[in-house]
Amino acid sequence: MEAATVRERLPIFFTASQERSRFTSGHSDRLVRPTISIIVPAYNEESQVAALLENLVASGATEVLLVDGASTDATAGIARGFPAVRLLQTRPNRAIQMNAGAAAATGDVLLFLHADVRLAPESLAAVRDAMQNPDLLGGNLDIRYTGNAWVAALFGWVNRWRRHLGIFYGDSGIFCRRSAFQALGGYQPWPILEDYDFARRLFKAARLAFLRAPLEVSDRRWRKAGLLATLCNWLVIQCLYTLGVSPRRLGKMYRDIR
Question: Are the C-beta atoms of residues 258 and 44 closer than 8 Å to each other?
Answer without folding.
Answer: yes
